[in-house]
């Protein structure tokens, strides 16, 4: 089973406090309702979290080894209520190609991780 | 002035609750003291936050436009007490090359963002 994250407004509010990014498009549902998105948007790091967990699980490590490379392209915004999972497109000794997809199967991030050895478990 | 983030254990604990990644290397200072790092490590998204803020400020946008690309390489772990800032190495209409550096000037992440147009302010 690959990792996934179900986004909540509480999670977004908590991330705003970590990052200091309290833009109303993230934390004010009324404001966000009047934007083209119609609802709040998760900060870009939140849908990325399953990628870190996938790679850690793949390597059996608690944190990514130094030198780990990552390539990302953001494709769609993520909102409260979305569940973001991962589809592995390619998996080899040197890296993983993936898509983060929402519960409708729409890709929200596509990318690749270049694996390096080392790190701590 | 470029964005920066000063990492605290509370921030890491809060991020653990968002991500579900409560590995003791992140949240248990006693456990972490016995690892090669000697102290807790911030989840990989935390030192990345100034990058999102830099790009948003550069574009005058609240969120990254769809299609935004990012290339990253993790170079060093980040710990509570670290202040992570950004050094812009190149800045053109199509993208920004950067290093996230800690308060000792050591690069912790290096990377590039490929800018696309669009998005909401």
N- to C-terminal distance of chain A = 20 Å
Q: What is the mean pLDDT of chain A?
A: 92
Name the pair of protein chains with the most residues at their interface, and give those residue counts. Answer: A-B, 43 and 42 residues
Got a strand count of chain A? 5
Walk me through what this model shows.
- The structure is a homodimer of 121-residue chains.
- By secondary structure, chain A is of the alpha+beta class.
- Chain A is built from four helices and five strands.
- The first copy, chain A, has a five-stranded antiparallel β-sheet with strand order 1-3-4-5-2, covered by helices on one side.
- Chain A has one domain: Thiol Ester Dehydrase, Chain A, CATH 3.10.129.
- Helices cover 26% and strands 27% of the residues of chain A.
- The model of chain A has no long low-confidence stretch (mean pLDDT 92).
- Chain A starts with a strand and ends in a 7-residue tail after the last strand.
- Chain A has helices at residues 9-19, 24-27, 29-33, 49-59; strands spanning 5-6, 69-74, 83-92, 95-101, 107-114.
- At the A-B interface, helix 1, helix 2, helix 4 and strand 2 of A face helix 1, helix 4 and strand 2 of B.
- Strand 2 of chain A pairs antiparallel with strand 2 of chain B.
Structural features:
alpha+beta, 26% helix, 121 residues, Thiol Ester Dehydrase, Chain A
Write the layout of secondary structure elements.
The structure is a homodimer of 121-residue chains.
Chain A: E1 5-6, H1 9-19, H2 24-27, H3 29-33, H4 49-59, E2 69-74, E3 83-92, E4 95-101, E5 107-114
Antiparallel strand pairs in A: 1-3, 2-5, 3-4, 4-5
């Amino acid at each position: 089973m690959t990792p996934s994250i179900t986004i909540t407004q509480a999670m977004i509010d908590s991330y705003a406090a970590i990052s200091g990014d309290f833009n109303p498009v993230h934390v004010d549902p009324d404001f966000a309702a009047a934007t083209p998105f119609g609802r709040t948007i998760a900060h870009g790091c939140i849908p990325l979290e399953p990628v870190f967990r996938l790679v850690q699980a793949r390597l059996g490590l608690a944190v990514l080894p130094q030198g780990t490379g990552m390539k990302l392209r953001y494709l769609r915004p993520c909102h409260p209520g979305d569940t973001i999972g991962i589809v592995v497109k390619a998996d080899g000794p040197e890296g993983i190609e993936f898509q983060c997809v929402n519960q409708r199967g729409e890709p929200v991030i596509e990318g690749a991780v270049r694996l390096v050895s080392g790190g701590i478990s």
